[in-house]
Amino acid sequence: MYIILGILIFGILIATHELGHFTVAKLFKVKVSEFAIGMGPAIIKKQKGETLYAWRAVPIGGYCAMEEDEESDDPRAFTNQVWWKRMLILIAGAAMNFIFGFIVLMFLVPGSASFSAPVLSGFEAGCPYEGEQGLMVGDEFYEIDGHRIYFTSNISFFLNRSEDTRYDLILLRNGEKLELKDFDLSPVEYELDGQTVTKIGIYMGGAEETGFGTVLSRAWDASKDFTRLVWLGLSDLLTGAVGLKELSGPVGIVEIINDVGESAATTTGAMMGIAYLAAFIAINLAVMNMLPIPALDGGRVLFLLVTAAYEGLTRRRLNPKYEGYVHTAGFVLLLGLMAIVMLNDIYKLFK
Fold first, then answer.
1. Do 256 and 8 touch, CB atoms closer than 8 A?
2. Residue 246: active-site member
3. Which of 115, 276, 292, 295 could form a disulfide with 302 if both were Cys (CB 3.0 to 4.6 A apart)?
């Protein structure tokens, strides 16, 4: 059931992406010949005006078919629109994915401990970091080494990303910022129930505010946090901190969704965990799709801006075949990367 749900989530996210393109295209009166949810043969289809609306058999993906022939004489064709209209149509897909993730987070924030405020609530007995010159109950972590802290989970994440145990901290104490430079947060040994335990020895969990404004604020912070995680992941990939083996495509993500569902103690917990992943994937897709890589919407936007600047300066039209060559090459490379990631996911499943 969870595997099927994971597949449906991908279908919904891709359909949502295409709905973004479709909505803005219609807003600008751009000709759309077909809007389809799903792929493959049509189960239900209806022609309404110039647009064919179709529900297709395979519940994965969808598409918004616009007139994109560079030689088209139709003034309502996508390629005959001014550059800023084309840019907004291209951006709309990623924007819709981001909005989808944000809305899901709004429903998750009120009942999830994952979005708890990073407020210090107590110390282990004998903790050396307690005191006016260090940490105090009620302090809220604001930054660690320049990284904004939105939730309690961010603290352990950024502490564990560094091999050093000294950090530049910014705390909020009594409504004012307090800066602790090069502050040591090394794990300390504590005797608990006759056993020696090594940990920092601080406890988090302040009183949670309620209300619609708080929900909006937390959902927005979570959206920014997810966006940052995507950029950090890309940075780790480019610097070699992680390799291609750590990447996961649709197969690996569906497996993760299945694991989250099966490991949950209750059906409600499973649904919340899967919804959390769906929000992260939606925002991940939004960020990745806007990267300036050929064949992606971000690459098309980049070429659109370059073309507009070139034509504005030279008063000559840039031959569109060059952009076509670049996007084709980018598409082939992306397909190759997707194949590698998918094979790696399948290998990990069997392993």
1. no
2. no
3. 292
If phi > 0 it is left, if psi is from -120 to 50 it is alpha, else beta; for residue 312 that is alpha
The DSSP code for 130 is B
Distance (Å, whole) CA 236 – CA 228: 12
Give φ, ψ of 145 to 5 degrees. Answer: 50, 40
Closest CA to 118 of 161, 147, 84, 90: 147
Domains defined along the chain, listed by start: 117-204 (2.30.42.10)
Query: pTM above the 0.70 mark?
Result: yes
CA neighbours closer than 13 Å in the CB half-sphere of residue 154: 25
Contact by Cβ (8 Å): 247, 237: yes
State the burial class of residue 322 (Cβ atoms within 10 Å of its Cβ: 0-12, 13-18, 19+): exposed
What confidence score (pLDDT) does residue 222 get?
94
* pLDDT, tens digit, 9 for 90 and up, residues 97-134: 999 999 999 999 887 777 888 999 999 888 889 887 78
The model's pLDDT over 63-94, given as tens digits with 9 standing for 90+, comes to 888 887 767 788 898 888 888 999 999 999 99
